[in-house]
Amino acid sequence: LLRARSFGLACFSAKAVRTCYTTPISSNLHIRTLATLPTPPADSYLSQLSHDNRLVYDTRVAALRELETKTKTPTYLSGFTPSTSIPQFKTGYADLQNGEKRTDLDITLCGRVIFKREASKKLVFYTIRADNVEVQVMATQQQYTSGPDAFALINSTLRKGDIVALRGFPGKTNIGELSIIPRDITLLTPCMRPIPLRLRRKSSRYTRRYLDLIVNPSARRAFEIRSQVINHVRRYLVERGFLEVETPTLSSNVGGANAKPFTTHAHAMNMDLFLRISPELYLKQLVIGGIDRVFELGKQFRNEGVDLTHN
Q1: Containing H/E element for 155?
Q2: Measured between alpha carbons, how far is 282 from 72 in angstroms, rounded to an integer?
Q3: Cα-trace Rg, the chain
Q4: Residues 9-51: pLDDT tens digits?
C-alpha cells in the first residue's frame, strides 16, 4: 500500500517535515423517450460497432420501442426511490419459513439484472444485484397485477444488464431461497450492449473498469480497501491535531520533487502552467505562516512511466 505517484499524502508539522505516499487506493421524475433521442452522427460510437454488435443494438431498440408504445411509459425514467435496499431486504426477511409468502406487504426494490431463467411462460426467475448483494426475483403471472399480456411483454423485453424496479412482497421458495415476488416490474434503464460472461484480458479489465465491476463483483473490494485506508489515514492525522488543506493543482513553477511534469496553457492569463508533481512547497509555506500541523490528500501528476501500480 505504499508509493504511488497518482495519489499522494503529504504530512507536515513544525517539528518534522516529511512526505509519504499511499496507494491510489427523490422525488422528481425526469423522462426521456427513445423518440427524443437524437440520430447519432456518422462518426459516432454506434458507427464504430461491428456488424453483429450493431445488429444486437438495433434489435434491442426495436424491442424497447414496442414496450414504450404498448405500455405508454417512457423508456428512460429516473427519480425512483425504493422502500428498502437489497441488503436490508435479505436481513429483514431471512427468518421466513420455506414456502412462506408475506402477501400483506408491499415492498419496492431496484437493481441490475445479472441472471435470467425462464421456467415457463408463467414463471420467470431473475437475479438482481445492488450494493454488491444479490437477491432472487420470482416473477409469476398469477401475482402480476397488470395481466398476462403485460407480464409476457416485460419478461420478453428484459435482458441481463438492465436496471429494473420491482414492487411486490417477500417470500421463500420451497427449497428456502429468499425472493421478492413482483406485482409490477418497471424497466428503469435498459442495457444496450450484451454483457460478457467474463473478461479474460487484463487490458480490458483496466480500461473498461465499469464492465469489470459488473462481470467481476470481487473487483469492488479494491475500491473498498482504498476508501478504508484513506479514511483511516485522514482520521489518524486529524485526531493528532493536523489540519487538512487543499493546495493548488496548477502552478507556474515546478518544485518539491525531481520529476517531469505535465504542461498546459491558461488562455485567460496567456501563460504556461504545470500540473503539480508534489504539494510540498505550498504545505511548507503554510507551516511558515503558522499552521504548525498540516496535511493534504491529493493527486500528484508525474509525466513518467505507467504500470499497474503507478498510474
Answers
A1: helix 148-157
A2: 59
A3: 26
A4: 555 554 443 333 333 333 344 445 555 554 555 556 666 667 7
Which neighbouring-strand residues pair with 137? 126, 180
Taking the C-alpha atoms of residue 230 and residue 292, their distance in angstroms, rounded to an integer, is 22
pTM, 2 dp: 0.74
Q: What average pLDDT does the chain have?
A: 83
Amino acid at 234: R
Cα(56)–Cα(190) distance, rounded to whole angstroms? 13
Nearest Cα neighbor of 111 from 163, 60, 153, 59 is: 163
Helix%, strand%, coil% for the chain, nearest 5: 30, 30, 40
Please, how many CA atoms are within 13 Å of residue 53, restricted to the half-sphere of its CB? Answer: 12
User: What pLDDT does residue 3 have?
Assistant: 34
Cα distances (Å, whole numbers) of residue 173 to 123, 152, 177, 262: 13, 22, 5, 59
Residue 300 reports pLDDT greater than 50: yes
- C-alpha pair distances (Å), 164 with each of 9, 44, 108, 233, 299: 40, 28, 11, 38, 36
Give me the phi and psi of 227, to 5 degrees please.
-65, -40
DSSP string across 251-263: ESS--SSS-PPPE
